Amino acid sequence: MDSPLTPAAVDAALVRLVAAGTVTEGQADAVRTELGVTGRRRVAGTAPTVEGTDGAAPVDRSGATRPADRRPLTSVLAEVGGYVGATFVGAAAVAVAGPQWDSLALGGQVALLLAPALLMLAAAAGVAASAPGRWTARETSPAHGSRRRLVSALVLVAAGLGAGAAALVAGDDAGPAAAALTGLLVTGAAYAACRTALLHLGVAFSAMSAVYAIVEKSDGPIGAAGVGVAILGVLWAVAALAGVLAERVLGLVIGAGLAFLGGENLVIDDASAAGYAVMAAVALAGLGGYLALREVALLAAGAVALAVVVPQAAIDYSDGALGAAGALLVCGLSIVAASVVALRVRTAVPTS
């Protein structure tokens, strides 16, 4: 016959589970509170749990969740120290290169950029390796938050330095394309292992730069770059919807921004009809996306696109006949109309 489940037995079982790493101290305390078990014992050799850092929300005797305490000062200082150190490394490379850059041979210039880039990547790998538990690409544990932010910052600094080194090796003709592709390679690989908004932005910027650099290398017109960037924007939005990109809303907004920029490039290249059609499609996609997904960021993107494309097209096709006052009037009316449309769409969607 099984022994009765006494408070002492429950407490002892929780102590064993904490020692084995199955549950955290905070989770064990939550179980004790729920069952009314008192006389908590701590596992020998373990440090007191800091609320808000073990992934479990603290609860009081009534079962209500209490606000999590702030992270320990040492954790905050370590994260800030990483940012400051990365900034100093980048500034040091610029400071050393400034007065002596032209006097350095190509090998010295490349080493001056590549060495700190590799150090930054090594530091990022070290920070990731120091994270408690198993590191995953889409980790959401609060304990990993500061490390993931620091890894992202270190990788972006390394990507910038590495891109500069690649541009030097490739030479003036192929330098921009080599820099953009190197940045895309570094940030893309890092994003695959660490999904953060900062690295997401880094990959998007590198991909856009690569499109412009490749078109420039092939002596293509700005309109060709516009088509490429618009297609990139569509693919970016599809990847966000498909879950390939972890930050769905950010991916959709970036996709809209890239497509809109591509439309602007087409307008600049005298392909006004196609450019304005792309920009109008972005506005409609933003408004329609809000109706489908109820994400306010998409509504804002659609409204901004609408407020920009209407007066730009009116002024362009009027060949300046509107004058300064007329242009201001059209701009003002477009902004008001975009606001009204946004509010109407917002009101039409019931809040859940």
Q: Helices and strands in order, then pairings?
A:
Layout: H1 7-20, H2 25-35, H3 73-100, H4 106-129, H5 145-193, H6 197-217, H7 222-242, H8 248-268, H9 272-293, H10 296-317, H11 323-348
Helix pairs in contact: 1-2, 3-4, 3-5, 4-5, 5-6, 6-7, 6-8, 7-8, 8-9, 8-10, 9-10, 10-11
What is the string of helix and strand elements? Answer: HHHHHHHHHHH
Please count the beta strands (DSSP E, at least 2 residues each).
Answer: 0
What is the mean pLDDT?
A: 79
Structural class: mainly alpha
Could you describe the 3D structure shown?
This protein is mainly α and 352 residues long. The chain has 3 domains: 1-70, no CATH class; 77-220; 239-352, no CATH class. Helices cover 74% and strands 0% of the residues. It contains 11 helices and no strands. The protein has helices at 7-20, 25-35, 73-100, 106-129, 145-193, 197-217, 222-242, 248-268, 272-293, 296-317, 323-348. The longest helix has 49 residues, at 145-193. The model is unreliable at 42-69 (pLDDT under 50).
Structure keywords:
single chain; 352 residues; mainly alpha; 3 domains; 74% helix
